Amino acid sequence: MRARESDSLQVTTTMEYHYDYPNHLDEPTPIDSSGRELPDPPAYDFPYEPGDAGYEAARTSGYYGPMYAGKYAWSNVRCTAEAFGEYDREARAGHRRKTINGKPRRSLKFHTTWMDRPEAVACVREIGSYNRFTDDRVVDVLESCPENTRYVVGRESSPVLYLWTDKPVDVMNTLTIALPDELDAHPGADRYPTLFVGEPLQGLKNDGDTLIRAWWD
Q1: pLDDT confidence of 12, banded at 50, 70, 90?
Q2: pTM of full prediction above 0.70
Q3: How far, in Å, CA of 103 to CA of 7, rounded?
Q4: Dihedral angle, C-alpha 92, 68, 179, 32, nearest 10 °
Q5: Per the record, which residues fall in region Disordered (predicted)?
């Protein structure tokens, strides 16, 4: 579903957002200082079909329903701002409406495409502070991750972050600083978002391409 022109005009006149990046759908993974390029990151695959309870709950809980930034003309940053649009904090100053056509301005099942660090940081800044999620802490974590790490920012009711890395132990240790309520790893994953709990930090090794999920209540 692409953003309808009328929605884009309406949103533009009622909302300020900080950054605008194109969606990075086909760019190769950045190469880190060791020269290693990660394989393509896991593909987006929403785990519910129309009519399923999970899909219908997301569809009726906000104006955008299930929202994947790769299907919108807007940037990842703009989509993030809309997915959290009903959450009124200092992240997005200025006048804006919390509802669109009587529905909360949000998506409770939202994910960006895979991004490099600067774009992911811009998305995190659009969320700001959300319960245990604090943008300053999360940005500090992103800036400490290996250069070739890729990122997805999303909302699974509350903020979620996916990371694609070949240094899962290092990244998970760093993520603990941001105090996520859930943190697990999915070695060799080929799809996101995940439905099942992955492996804990204990016993994990820095020897494989791994999808990491961090979620804040």
Answers
A1: very low
A2: yes
A3: 13
A4: -100
A5: 19-40
Return the pLDDT at 193: 94
Asked if 128 and 90 count as a contact pair (C-beta separation under 8 A), the reply is yes
Token match 């200025």: residue?
94
Which positions ≥6 away from 190 have C-beta within 8 Å?
A: 42, 43
For 13-116, where are the alpha helices, taking DSSP H only? 53-60, 76-83
Contact 193, 69 (CB under 8 A): no
Q: What is the mean pLDDT of the chain?
A: 83
The type of residue at 197 is V
> Using one digit for the tens of pLDDT, what is the confidence trace for 100-109?
899 999 999 9
Q: Are 104 and 98 in contact (CB under 8 A)?
A: yes
Spatial neighbors of 49 by CB under 8 A, at least 6 apart, are: 55
The domain ranges of the chain are: 15-24+38-215
